[in-house]
């Protein structure tokens, strides 16, 4: 199975307890966000294959031409409603095109065999990792489990018949949207009509009706097998089923999806997505809509492009999710959105009956309350003067650090107050050192220390404020970076993709240097010297290792923030406040060492 990298990030505190607590939180959050579980289930219903069927034989009085109907066997025990034969004698394709996409239909199954996304919302064209036009269809999964806009029923044999039948299209060749395309097929007791209508947007409309023996059949219009950009660990791990039922949006991860599972309405919209693209159905009649989910596996051991997977000799199985919509009446009318999960695009698409739009389709993760505003600010900067996303990240980082400057100054002031009363605190601790930690007298010691701090205006949590602000922002950026299609393949200077690791590992090296300088220049009053040494060398190593394997955009954000912090701290160290802090720290170091001179690890003298 896939091996996912689990990076860490640096942290710090004013004492040993806060340091350990922050590290535990850091590790728990990062490893929790990286944890994905993939259950293995076998597909319940086979779909279309690549092999073209031979032309159907002429019907006879003894046997109907379609043998997949099961109950309508040739023994004549059940009457059938004969349909006039409507089926093509040869395979053909029809291409629908507008400025946004180029869709190729095959009359075999009336399915889509290629779906090229041509244009990004912000300009340019979507490309795959080889620089070719992006086909949104996962061809490997589609060949095994069915192509987009195929039909899925509870009867595997009927599903196979619907997928392999040669439909008669209303048009072949190339069509320019707005346009309409209808596929018809009938033989024996089976009749199928599929009509698709296209306009200038990412949304098309589908009208599907299947009858057998004159009775409607519930046939789900499906997107069965993932997306064409799922070629690395991130792509497969981010697959999910998205729903908006009774006004509530839910993102079902792989472990919560069951094969051939169904969910009744009212369904405003539902579909499947990965980090960047989605196929979402918006039924015309939400109250009578039913959602079907598929969960299958494919072996990508020979096709995976990027690192992050174990290239062992055995198969590398990954999940592919599918979703589809049907109406309980058997006559399905639905709009279908297939395109990028760009917020500017999703906000403009609403469910039927003036329902919710698709904006909530973008899942920013655990820290979404911070990550979404963070991205909105980044997008604003990018669209107002800094078109390059890398420079937009730099500008956003500068603005964030300027806003944090008052908190850093407040932290230094609080630290100086703490240094001034440190001898008195030590004297209190010395009086109570003979008592055990469980002795009630220790409570009196803590009460005296707290009163001393309060009398001198010391906030015991004051030194944690910058960390309490910085870490959530860092976690939010960590969660936001791989979830926004706008940053897909966004370049900056030597970096071809800000969502991928730096190919030359320049930023991780810069990250280590900048992190060490942060530790060197930042005073840490009240922190044990041995802990200072550990933080000065361990934290840069951890942050460097983390950014080595993660998206370069995060390393850029982190490194720029470090350098801004270094500049701010260097300036503050030259103020009267900074000079007094360094003088007090040096005096404490000399007294502890029992010498006339001393050095401090942090807060350059």
Automatic annotation (TrEMBL):
Membrane insertase YidC N-terminal domain mapped to chain residues: 95-376
Main location as per UniProt: membrane
Membrane-crossing segments per the record: 18-36, 388-409, 458-478, 556-572
Domain Membrane insertase YidC/Oxa/ALB C-terminal: 389-574
GO biological process: protein insertion into membrane; protein transport
CDD domains xrefs: 5TM_YidC_Alb3 (cd20070), EcYidC-like_peri (cd19961)
Region Disordered, residue ranges: 44-84
GO terms for cellular component: plasma membrane
Localization, UniProt: Cell inner membrane; Cell membrane
Membrane topology: Multi-pass membrane protein
Keyword annotations of the record: Cell membrane, Chaperone, Membrane, Protein transport, Transmembrane, Transmembrane helix, Transport
Pfam family of the protein (one): 60KD_IMP
Any one GO MF annotation of this record: membrane insertase activity
Oligomeric form and interacting partners: Interacts with the Sec translocase complex via SecD. Specifically interacts with transmembrane segments of nascent integral membrane proteins during membrane integration.
Function of the molecule: Required for the insertion and/or proper folding and/or complex formation of integral membrane proteins into the membrane. Involved in integration of membrane proteins that insert both dependently and independently of the Sec translocase complex, as well as at least some lipoproteins. Aids folding of multispanning membrane proteins.
Family: Belongs to the OXA1/ALB3/YidC family. Type 1 subfamily.
Annotated protein name in UniProt: Membrane protein insertase YidC
Organism: Edaphobacter paludis
